C-alpha cells in the first residue's frame, strides 16, 4: 500500500453557494493528524459535506487554504488527488451493473492510461481490497444485489484499491443496522492501524465517540470545539450544538450521549 499518509490542514476556510447566499462555512480551521481518525460532528446543515467537497477540490472556497502533506491543494493535479485521497460518499449511484470485483477495479483508474485495461497487478490489488473489506465471497455478485451494508463495504473496497493515504467518508454508517455499523467501524479502526488517515462526517455523537482520535464539533459552518472526544463531547458543548438537553455518561473511558 501507499507509504505516504498525508495529513489534512484547513485554515480560515469560508464558502457560500452563491454571491448572495449565506455562508455555509465561516472561517473554519481544523487538522487531521496522519494515521488517525477524525470525525466532523454536527447536525444536518452544519457544513460537513461541503467541507469534504472543498478538500477534494470539487468546490472553490471564498477564502482560506487547504493543505495536504504540507502542500496547498492547488499544487496537486486531479490525478495526484485521486491517488492521495479517496472518497466514500453517502450514496454512490451506479450507471452499470458491475460485479463486486469489477466495481473494486474502478479504484485503479487513476493509475491507468486512457483506454488502458486493468492488468494482473490491478486485479491483485482489487482482490486484496475485497479481502480487507471482507467481501471476497461476494466478488462475483452484482453490486446492485448487495444489501446497504455490503454496498458500503464495496465502496470502501473500491477506495482501498485506489490506494490513497487518506480516506474521506460522508456519513458512512447512515441508514445501516447495528451489525453493519459494527463492521464498518471495525474496518475503519483496522485501516487506521494500517496507517491510513481517516476523516469522516457524522451527526451521531456516539459514532464519533466510539471511533475517533479527534472530534471537530461544527455548528453553522463554524468550529465550536476540537480535540479528543473526552474534552469536546461535553453536555454543554453538545446541547449548544444540537439545541436539546444532553446527558453524558462514561463508558469505558469514552463519553456516551443520552438524550434527556
- Approximate strand percentage: 25-35%
Low-confidence stretches: 1-6
CATH topology name, in short, is Rossmann fold
**From the coordinates shown, what is the CATH architecture?**
3-Layer(aba) Sandwich
Total beta strands? 12
Strand order, biggest sheet?
Answer: 6-7-8-3-9-10
Rg for CA atoms:
18 Å
Task: Estimate the mean pLDDT confidence.
Answer: 91
Q: What is the terminal separation in angstroms?
A: 45 Å
Write down the overall geometry.
Answer: globular
Q: What are the secondary-structure elements, in order, as H or E?
A: EEEHEEHEHHHEHEHEEHHEE
Q: Keyphrases for this structure?
A:
260 residues; alpha/beta; Rossmann fold; 6-stranded mixed β-sheet; 4-stranded antiparallel β-sheet; 9 helices; globular; disordered N terminus
Task: Please write out the topology.
Layout: E1 8-16, E2 23-32, E3 37-41, H1 48-55, E4 63-68, E5 71-72, H2 78-84, E6 85-88, H3 100-105, H4 120-133, H5 148-162, E7 166-170, H6 178-193, E8 197-202, H7 205-211, E9 214-219, E10 222-227, H8 229-232, H9 235-242, E11 246-251, E12 254-259
Parallel strand pairs: 3-8, 3-9, 6-7, 7-8
Antiparallel strand pairs: 1-2, 1-4, 4-5, 9-10, 11-12
Explain what this protein looks like in three dimensions.
The chain is α/β, with parallel strands linked by helices and 260 residues long. It has a single domain (8-259), classed as P-loop containing nucleotide triphosphate hydrolases (Rossmann fold, 3-Layer(aba) Sandwich). 33% of the residues lie in helices and 27% in strands. The protein is built from nine helices and twelve strands. It has helices at 48-55, 78-84, 100-105, 120-133, 148-162, 178-193, 205-211, 229-232, 235-242; strands at residues 8-16, 23-32, 37-41, 63-68, 71-72, 85-88, 166-170, 197-202, 214-219, 222-227, 246-251, 254-259. The strands form three sheets. The chain has a six-stranded mixed sheet, with helices on both faces. β1 (8-16) and β2 form a beta hairpin. The radius of gyration is 18 Å and the shape is globular.
Amino acid at each position: 500500500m501507499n507509504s505516504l499518509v498525508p495529513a489534512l490542514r484547513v485554515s480560515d476556510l469560508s464558502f457560500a453557494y452563491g454571491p448572495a447566499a449565506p455562508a455555509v462555512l465561516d472561517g473554519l480551521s481544523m487538522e487531521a493528524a496522519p494515521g488517525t481518525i477524525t470525525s466532523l460532528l454536527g447536525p444536518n446543515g452544519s457544513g460537513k459535506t461541503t467541507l469534504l467537497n472543498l478538500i477534494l477540490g470539487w468546490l472553490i472556497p471564498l477564502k482560506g487554504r487547504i493543505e495536504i502533506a504540507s502542500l496547498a491543494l492547488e499544487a496537486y493535479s486531479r490525478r495526484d488527488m485521486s491517488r492521495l485521497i479517496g472518497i466514500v460518499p453517502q450514496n454512490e449511484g451506479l450507471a452499470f451493473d458491475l460485479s463486486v470485483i469489477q466495481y473494486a477495479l474502478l479504484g485503479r483508474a487513476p493509475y491507468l492510461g486512457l483506454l488502458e485495461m486493468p492488468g494482473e497487478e490491478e486485479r491483485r490489488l482489487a482482490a486484496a481490497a475485497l479481502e480487507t473489506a471482507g467481501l471476497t465471497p461476494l466478488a462475483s455478485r452484482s453490486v446492485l444485489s448487495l444489501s446497504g451494508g455490503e454496498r458500503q463495504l464495496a465502496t470502501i473496497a473500491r477506495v482501498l484499491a485506489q490506494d490513497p493515504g487518506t480516506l474521506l467518508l460522508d456519513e458512512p454508517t447512515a441508514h445501516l443496522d447495528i451489525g453493519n455499523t459494527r463492521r464498518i467501524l471495525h474496518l475503519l479502526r483496522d485501516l487506521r492501524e494500517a496507517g491510513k488517515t481517516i476523516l469522516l462526517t457524522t451527526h451521531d455523537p456516539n459514532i464519533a465517540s466510539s471511533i475517533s482520535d479527534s472530534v471537530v464539533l461544527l455548528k453553522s459552518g463554524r468550529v465550536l470545539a476540537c480535540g479528543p472526544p473526552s474534552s469536546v463531547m461535553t453536555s454543554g458543548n453538545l446541547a449548544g450544538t444540537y439545541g436539546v438537553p444532553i446527558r453524558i455518561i462514561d463508558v469505558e473511558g469514552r463519553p456516551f450521549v443520552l438524550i434527556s
